[in-house]
Amino acid sequence: MRRAAVGAPVAAPEDPQTAAAGADFPRSAPAVAPTETPAEAAPRQQLRTEFPFELPRGYVDDSGTVHRDGVMRLSTARDELIPLRDVRVQENPAYLSVVLLGRVITRLGTLTMVHDGVVENMFASDLAFLQDFYRQINAEGHTRAAVQCPHCTEPFEVELGGSRLGES
Known about the structure:
20% strand; globular; 168 residues; single chain
């Protein structure tokens, strides 16, 4: 069954063989030029792919240096699929978050490289913070939440990601 857009003319095929061959396939309506000029179009937003954070306690390296400031990038499908082949994850599914975080944390303090070995040696509170931060930036797309002032009922947004525990 063919459907034509309301008011759109149906073009007759130039070649009878083309008409017979394409009889079973719906034809798309001709493209309509946008009514806005580029100057009138809304400005395009840049996709934010990296998000800074500050660990509640901080990672302590072998020399005793504490690393708290870091950057996490958005996860890709590959980031989520590759750890599933890791033997450690297959033996213990809880290890998935450690391997995944080791892939998406791009910077932590002055460390030259962040990997799953760094993540597995973090304090539990920092690991929980990073798991929540990962969920916020990847599942929800941002780390802001709409809230309302309990006194004046004025709505506003708060930044959840990167804040320290106990701070608002």
